[in-house]
Amino acid sequence: MREVVIAGVGIHKFGRFEGKSFEQIGQEAVRMALKDANNTYFKDVQIAFCGHMHGGTGAGHRTLAGIGLTGIPIVNVETACASGATALQQASQGIAAGLYDVALAFGVEKMPRGFMRMTSFPQWQVLSGLAVNPVGFALRATRHMAEYGTTEEQLAKVSVKNHKNAVLNPYAMYQKALTMEEILNSPMVCYPLRLLMFCAPCEGAAVAILCGRDMASKYTSKPVTVAAVYTSVAQYGTSESNAGAGDIGHSTKIQNTEVTTVLANQAYEISGVGPEDLDLVELQDTDSFSEIRFYEELGLCQPGEGGRLIDEGRTEVGGDIPVSVSGGLLSKGEPTGASALGQVVEVTWQLRGEAGPRQVSGAKVGLCHVTGAGGNAAVTILKR
Amino acid sequence: MREVVIAGVGIHKFGRFEGKSFEQIGQEAVRMALKDANNTYFKDVQIAFCGHMHGGTGAGHRTLAGIGLTGIPIVNVETACASGATALQQASQGIAAGLYDVALAFGVEKMPRGFMRMTSFPQWQVLSGLAVNPVGFALRATRHMAEYGTTEEQLAKVSVKNHKNAVLNPYAMYQKALTMEEILNSPMVCYPLRLLMFCAPCEGAAVAILCGRDMASKYTSKPVTVAAVYTSVAQYGTSESNAGAGDIGHSTKIQNTEVTTVLANQAYEISGVGPEDLDLVELQDTDSFSEIRFYEELGLCQPGEGGRLIDEGRTEVGGDIPVSVSGGLLSKGEPTGASALGQVVEVTWQLRGEAGPRQVSGAKVGLCHVTGAGGNAAVTILKR
Question: What is the C-alpha separation between B383 and B12, in angstroms, rounded?
Answer without folding.
Answer: 23
